[in-house]
Specification:
Layout: E1 3-7, E2 10-12, E3 18-25, E4 30-38, E5 45-51, E6 56-58, E7 66-72, E8 76-83, E9 92-100, E10 105-108, E11 112-116
Parallel strand pairs: 2-11
Antiparallel strand pairs: 1-3, 3-8, 4-5, 4-9, 5-6, 7-8, 9-10, 9-11
Length: about 120
């Protein structure tokens, strides 16, 4: 059974920084790790993703401000999302996602709240 555990988040002023961390354990087949975010009444959106091969994808609204890094071990995989120059519109519940192949399966963390407010 794959477990996904997030840490980080909290309250920060506009222009500030936060770091989110995520660890996935229980599978040797995790090939992509990502962060999504969601606010009430809206669909969950991709923030950033990284593959085992190091390919990164960023959402348009965070490109240039957020950086994702990953460490894909054999049985445990981890990633860090460094968020700089945060804006009030970045306020959301952030979810870590780990995806394995054969068959394709997504695993989710419980979510961590990020609030950007003065």
């Amino acid at each position: 059974q794959v477990q996904v555990v997030e840490s980080g988040g909290g309250l920060v002023q506009p222009g500030g920084s936060l770091r989110l961390s995520c660890v996935a354990s229980g599978s040797t087949a995790i090939v992509i790790m990502a962060w999504y975010r969601q606010t009430p009444g809206k669909e969950r959106e991709l923030v950033a993703s990284i593959t085992r091969g190091g390919v990164r994808i960023y959402g348009d609204s965070v490109r240039g401000r957020f950086t994702i890094s990953g460490d894909f071990g054999t049985n445990t995989q981890a990633n860090t999302l460094q968020m700089n120059n945060l804006k009030p519109e970045d306020t959301a519940n952030y979810y870590c996602n780990a995806q394995k192949i054969a068959p394709t399966t997504n695993y989710w963390g419980q979510g961590t709240q990020v609030t950007v407010s003065s």
